[in-house]
Design goal:
Layout (H helix, E strand, L loop, with lengths): L1 H12 L3 E5 L8 H11 L3 H19 L5 E5 L1 H4 L2 H17 L3 E8 L3 H11 L2 E4 L2 E4 L5 E4 L5 H14 L2 E7 L6 H4 L2 E2 L2 E2 H12 L12 E5 L4 H10 L5 E3 L9 H4 L10 E5 L1 H4 L2 H4 L3 H20 L2
Parallel strand pairs: 1-2, 1-12, 2-3, 3-6, 6-7, 7-10, 10-11, 11-12
Antiparallel strand pairs: 4-5, 8-9
Helix pairs in contact: 2-3, 3-5, 3-14, 6-7
Length: about 300
C-alpha cells in the first residue's frame, strides 16, 4: 500500500516532515530571479525558470533529510501551461531523489470529473489500449464536499496504482470552523467526514494498520487532532499549519501513535523562505531549518 511506502520513508529518515513547495515571486532569492529576468524579461516564462531552479535546489538539498515533498499546484497553475510543466518536472525530480510526492490540488467533483482528476494526478489516461501516466504523484489532496461518488474514483485509482489520498477534514485556516464544526445530526461535520473516509478506506489498509485514504488535520487545531486520533487510529494524517501558520510541535504531537507513526507534518515557508531570516544561501538555510524542525518534532513525539 502507498501508505506503507510513506511510513517506511519516514522511518528511514527518522523524520515526519514533508517539504511544502509553494513558490511565489517573493520567495525566490534575488540572484535566481535576476538571472531569469535578464534572460527572458519580466515574463511568466522568467518566473517559470526561477521557480524550477528554486524548487530543484530545495529538493536536492533536502532529499537526505525529509522523506516527502508536497507541491501546491495553485502556484504553478497561475503561470499557465509552462508552469504546469514545472509542476510535472518537480514531481519527476522529487521521485528521482526517492522522495514521496504529494500533489496538493484539493480536487473533487461529480464522479466522471473526479475520474478525470484522478487519472491526471494519480492514475492513467487510456488511449487505444495504452495507458499513459500524467502527473503521476504518489498522493493527492481531495475535497469531500460532493460525497461518496466524488471520492470513489480516487479510491479506485489508489487500489489500482498503489496511490494515496488525503481528504480535507479539519483544516488549518482561520475560518475552517465556519463549515467544518457545524453540527449535523449531533456531530461536528468534520467527524462525519473522518468517519466516511475511514469506512471507504478500509480496503486500502496496509501492514501498519493505516489506510491509504488519509485526512488533512491542521496543526492549528490541537484539540481536534487529539479527538480524531482517539476516534480513528487507522487514519493517517497530513498535518499543515506548522510554523508560519502558528502550529507547534507540542500541539500536533497527538497526531502520532505510541510508535511515533500516523502523521506527516508540512512546512513550506518555514523551510523554503528560511534564507530571508538567516541571510545564508537559500539551500543552506533550508537544510538548517529542516534539521531544526526534525529535532523539534522528535522531542514532541518521543519526549
Amino acid at each position: 500500500m502507498s501508505v506503507d511506502r510513506l511510513i517506511d520513508a519516514i522511518g528511514e529518515k527518522k523524520n515526519p516532515t514533508v517539504l511544502g513547495l509553494d513558490p511565489q515571486p517573493e520567495h525566490i532569492p534575488p540572484e535566481i530571479m535576476k538571472k531569469y529576468i535578464a534572460e527572458r524579461g519580466r515574463t511568466l516564462s522568467a518566473l517559470c525558470g526561477a521557480y524550477e531552479t528554486y524548487i530543484t535546489g530545495l529538493i536536492e538539498a533536502l532529499s537526505g533529510i525529509v522523506p516527502a515533498v508536497k507541491l501546491q499546484s495553485a502556484f504553478f497553475e497561475t503561470l499557465g501551461p509552462e508552469g504546469m510543466g514545472v509542476f510535472q518536472r518537480g514531481i519527476q525530480t522529487a521521485r528521482a531523489h526517492n522522495l514521496y510526492v504529494i500533489a496538493d490540488a484539493k480536487r473533487g467533483d461529480i464522479g466522471s470529473t473526479s475520474s478525470a482528476y484522478s487519472a491526471a494526478f494519480l492514475g492513467r489516461l487510456e488511449l487505444g489500449g495504452t495507458q499513459f501516466p500524467v502527473f503521476d504523484a504518489d498522493a493527492l489532496t481531495v475535497n469531500p464536499y460532493l460525497g461518496s461518488d466524488n471520492l470513489e474514483p480516487f479510491l479506485m485509482d489508489c487500489e489500482r496504482y498503489q496511490k494515496m489520498v488525503f481528504v480535507l477534514c479539519k483544516t488549518s485556516n482561520p475560518s475552517a470552523s465556519e463549515v467544518q464544526e457545524q453540527t449535523v445530526g449531533g456531530r461536528p461535520l468534520y467527524h462525519i467526514v473522518a468517519e466516511q473516509v475511514s469506512a471507504a478506506g478500509k480496503r486500502l489498509t496496509g501492514r501498519y494498520g493505516y489506510s491509504s485514504a488519509g485526512i488533512v488535520a491542521g496543526a492549528t487545531q490541537p484539540n481536534s487532532i487529539r479527538t480524531l486520533r482517539e476516534r480513528h487510529p487507522e487514519l493517517f494524517f497530513l498535518v499543515p499549519g506548522y510554523g508560519a501558520q502558528g502550529g507547534t510541535a507540542a500541539g500536533l504531537a497527538a497526531a502520532f501513535d505510541k510508535d511515533g507513526r500516523g502523521a506527516i507534518v508540512n512546512n513550506s515557508r518555514g523551510i523554503g523562505c528560511a534564507w530571508q531570516r538567516s541571510g545564508k544561501r537559500y539551500t543552506d538555510a533550508a537544510r538548517e531549518a529542516a534539521l531544526t524542525m526534525r529535532e523539534d518534532l522528535r522531542k514532541a513525539i518521543n519526549p
